[in-house]
Amino acid sequence: MEKRYNLLTAIAMVVGTVIGSGVFFKAEVVLKNTGGNLMIGVLSWLIMGLVMIICTYTFGIVAGNYEGADGLVAFTRASCGKTYAYYVGWFMTVVYYPTLTGVLCWLPARYFGVLIGGDVWGNPTSAPVMTLSIVFLIATYAMNALAPKLAGKFQISTTAIKLVPLVLMAVVGTVVGLTNGQITYNFSNIVDPSVAPTTGLFAGVVALSFAYEGWICATSIGSELKDAKRNLPRALVIGAIIVVAVYVAYYVGLAGALDSAVMMENGQEGAKLAFQNIFGQVGGAAIFVFVIVSCWGTCNGLTMSACRGMYDLAVDSDSEKLKMFKNVDPTTGMASNSSVIGLLMSGLWLVYFYGANLAPAPWFGPFCFDSSELPIITLYLLYIPIFLKLMSLKNLSGLNRYVMPVLAILCSLFMCFACIYTYKMKVVYYLIVFAVVMLAGTFFKGKKA
Coil, strand or helix: which one is 359? Predict the structure, then answer.
């Protein structure tokens, strides 16, 4: 595939895929999970940010040591063998990319509904909101499948756009909050003291896994990135640092914009109220349009990876069943068959997301799990063998060979423990679904995988 992307695009993909939806979507969730304890909330943002920085740095080491390996599947094959790489690729293609893309095409539709207001548009699973979700899904896939260069430029543009509301809230919200005492009040008053700090911390960290996730998707354009061996590690680390700084600053600014109790009570509409409280009705609504575009940019970043999921899997396999996904369209330079599968899988997971969140009677009974969080925790578990393999490479320094891989493994285990602590039995039901999906992957596996 064509070397069409530079370092700026890769950084934009890291920042643009991570930032843009979860920071708005999960801010009030963290407040609820911590009982409005802002100190525990900030600690949750910092801990999850540290996990991201450690893991991105360690993957930068991986990217720099396996020459010719581009993307998570190729990294896994180079370090852990073809069989393990196949199942990691299958998970990414069938579960990880499409579950997140399904949620992310819903988010801009959801926030558009918040902007419009009213009983119908204000309902997160109403017919208009879900219909608009489908429109976002199809439009984004069409752009990526038919005009991949345009999709890359769109990613850079939306990355710049999505920083506008975050930086404004971080700066203006903090100044206003310090001036009128709102930040001091929110930090010194816990809305729900019955929530234990430990419980709130673990629940906050797990919720933020969605807000901090997506950086691994930047590795999917490795084969299309100029000087990938040098630029991919740089993009991962630089992007991670930018994300952490922006997130913490935004969360503090939010504390200066609105009472925590009001934010918790209004759910996903809390972000809109916060912006209007600082910038007025018209100004707040105008800035909230940037929030919608920001969410769409995040959707585009995940879609860039989802379009390439089956292609990455096919080129690493000798399976006749996957052979058709190796095709690259000579006109668009894009793996069109892989894009179609990405669209179908994302559509199916969007249906699951709708059914699992349909109140008061969700469709799937005990198998209704949070598709924006649990698949992410699984990925951290799958990272561990890759990190372990780094410790056997004798050409690395002590820091890169032992310290960073060990820290990355500890971060991954921490994420798994936090997930089990928070979701308990729901983890078991999710793992049943995970096992069935992985078992289905054996049908498509080639003889040498």
Answer: coil
